[in-house]
Amino acid sequence: MDRQHAHRLLDQLDPGQLAAVGHLLEVMVDPVARALAAAPADDEPVTEQDRRRFHKGQASFAQRKGIPMEDVLAEFGAKPEDFPLSPDHAR
Predict the structure, then answer these.
(1) What is d(CA 47, CA 53) in angstroms, rounded to the nearest whole number?
(2) pLDDT digits (tens, 9 = 90+) for 31-64
(3) Could you please report the per-residue DSSP string of 37-80?
(4) Of 25, 54, 67, 73, most Cβ neighbours within 10 A?
(5) Contact 21/10 with Cβ under 8 angstroms?
(6) Do 27 and 33 meet the contact criterion of CB atoms below 8 Å apart?
(7) Residues 6+ apart with CB under 8 A from 82
């Protein structure tokens, strides 16, 4: 595919499709994203300590223990209303 053909295809996209393709292109040319995509899989063995921590975390979430989001945001001087939700992600 040459550039002219690619440009003709881009010209046919609606704004939402163009935004998605634009994001894809940004990721493709980002050196960090390319490095992550090309990185080998993590082959480090899982230790017994890893397993214990994982299961402890699962149990904690099952008991609904955790830190309220408001507390986490407050540590950074932020509030939930500082991050308005898009209509697609409304509660």
Answers:
(1) 10
(2) 888 888 888 988 999 999 999 999 998 888 888 7
(3) HHSPP--PPPPHHHHHHHHHHHHHHHTT-S--HHHHHHHTT--G
(4) 73
(5) yes
(6) yes
(7) 73
